[in-house]
What does this fold into?
Amino acid sequence: MKHESGSISINTENIFPIIKKWLYSEKDIFIRELVSNASDAISKLKKLDAIGEADLPDDNRFEIKVIVNKNEKTIKVIDNGLGMTDEEVKKYINQIAFSGAVDFLEKYKDKSDDGQIIGHFGLGFYSAFMVSERVQIDTLSYQPGAAAVRWISDGGTEFEMQDSDITERGTTITLYLAEDGLEFTDEYKMRTTLEKYFAFLPYELYLEDAAKVPEKADESKGEEQEAASENAEPKKPEPLNDTHPLWLKNPKDCTEEEYKQFYTKVFHDFNEPLFWIHLNMDYPFNLKGILYFPKLKHEFETMEGQIKLYYNQVFVADNIKEVIPEFLLLLKGVLDCPDLPLNVSRSFLQNDGYVNKISTHITKKVADKLTSLFENERENYNKYWDDINPFVKYGCIREEKFYDRVKDILIYKSTKGGYTTLKDYLENNKEKHENKVFYVSNEKQQAQYIRLFNENGMEAVILSTMIDNHFMQLLESKMTGVRFNRIDADISDSMKNDNTGIAEADVSYLEKLFKAAVDDDKLKVQVESLKNETVPAMILLSEQSRRMQEMSAMFGGMDMSHMFPKEQTLVLNSSNKLVKALTDMKEDETRKDQVKLISEHIYDLAMMSHQPLEPDAMAKFIERSNEILMKLV
It folds into this structure.
């Protein structure tokens, strides 16, 4: 072809500096665009070959190569795809690419936040100028008789076209880097970038460092060793990527070991996942992927999930909540959605019917998997529950459809041992406390209350995660008449004897005695005859009062205690010998100090079974304990 030069018709002045500045926060995007284009060029050629419009040799191997050269300050991206003719270069590079840049910038000029754009897919070739002072394309079309073409531009709107000296089909793009792009000539930096985006690219991807000098033969080697090393075949380079990721396989062809190895490889987590869901859909939309339920070391880890979104095996981003239901972001997994419109704003995705269908489908598949485990592998389901329950509860709160699907398979650890559903719990305990669910939030702190429950054949469920307060409110709103009470919020009638066994005058005396002992006129005192005679006193805290207090604590640490005072009640057990002894000593003035000492101690013991004592109260308790021991001596 004859040498040709020209100017690209663009209305926006200095477009490339704008591209550089606007996309600076994701500078490595240029390599994703160029390698993605190379992959597309191969895919198109494969398609043409499949329909008989291209004639490829039987031993044809497709590959993409990236070559960095620190000395020459260049990066080359080479593919053996379909290549371009000079007419195609004029059409796709001189016209579409550059006008596309203007359209793109115009469309998003008001979006100051780079995060507004999901993928930047469609940026294409001109993203090369983000890091380059000069870009050169050498390309040879697959079409018979086509001539090789070279295209060069120095980053303005000027270009040159001439014959190229390449002889192999495909395209080589050479970037002559600007100073702010030189970091990408570092082999480690480039390798990390390529592995980030292209770990599962469908065509083999290789990285070379042209600036590396081959190692000289060791002079100390013997002649035989040196000859052997010279005759040895050069080691075949390994591709950076896995061209057939596990999510593309049919689930029935995947082994348990493969799923675990894939999880470790992708997420660098050496704790085995509990279980997984393999998504494999072709209709009505294309969606493939694997979602893993990780084993948690502690509850806060539920916030560290990672769902990787891919587009035709090219990584797009982590945790795109517009596509993936928010509660699923607590899991780990990969999703490949080749039909997603990724070069549009996130606000569009939120309202896109197709995206909503994907989100709904994923939610359904997760619920179906949990239901299958509950129905067919109940023992495993129970074992998994401690790890997965924060996730399941969060899903119920965030997604009504998810709650509707899993409400009957929600289980609760029981103080009687094992696990129960809420339906079974309510049925088994309806004679003792109809529609009331007693729960434990801290098994150690509430051990005394649990013991009382067990002794009376009563049952409570364990709800000890951070999310449980919100979860209980959800259940109360969904289940008419059902109310949750913490185990220290109320005493069931089945724990009490039929009467207190104590005179009204003694009840009044005990109320005054304990109010004076703890110096609190507003202290609520209740006298009950409990079937368990060993417990002298208990603290009850109104469920409503406690919830309001905990809710107020969420308002940035503001002190709202004046709005939600503690509704604590001291319950004295009239069946207990110590409490009976206090009433027996009420007329004995000589034992006044002893009565006060015992009253204070009973109150503190009750408080300690309810919550940790404040430092001052604990100091007085220890001092008083020593005094009591001395009196015994």
About this structure: Confidence is low (pLDDT under 50) at residues 111-122. The longest helix spans residues 353-376.
